[in-house]
Amino acid sequence: MEETSKQRKARLEAFRKRKAETITNTGEENESNENSKTLSFRNYTPLNEDVRANSIVKITKPEDIGDDTVEKTAQQIDLFNLAPRKPNWDLKRDVEKKLQKLERRTQASIAQLIRMRLQGESESTTDLADAVRATEKGAESENESD
């Protein structure tokens, strides 16, 4: 039993040494990583000169920024888009396609009614010119009576 306890103690001691070595190695690696890192102070100006020298500072010229924004805003502004729309503009947009169909049908039916009227008049009168003259005379007589 004494022999097994000595072996166990030796293994534990070797394990502790290995663990201590890894801790010191990682500590050295952390120090080298910390030295290679550079700090970026966006909202803070460091007071320490060493830290200020190692920090990264990117400065943009305000003149360049101003020119770009003026050009972009000039392109983006459209007076048609700025004007307020009526509350039912979307309804009108949706109904417009249906109204175009109805407009074509309406025009076709008006043309058909005119043809029917001309045919009815042509049966009563022999000539289209006579029908036109008759309508002109009727319009003149209405104007004189007023």
Automatic annotation (TrEMBL):
Residues 1-37, 119-146 are annotated as: Disordered. Residues 22-37 have a biased composition (Low complexity). InterPro entries: mRNA_splic_Cwf18-like. It comes from the Eukaryota. Transmembrane segments: none annotated. One of its GO terms (cellular component) is post-mRNA release spliceosomal complex. Residues 1-15 have a biased composition (Basic and acidic residues). It holds the Pfam family cwf18. This is 2515_t:CDS:1. It comes from Paraglomus brasilianum.
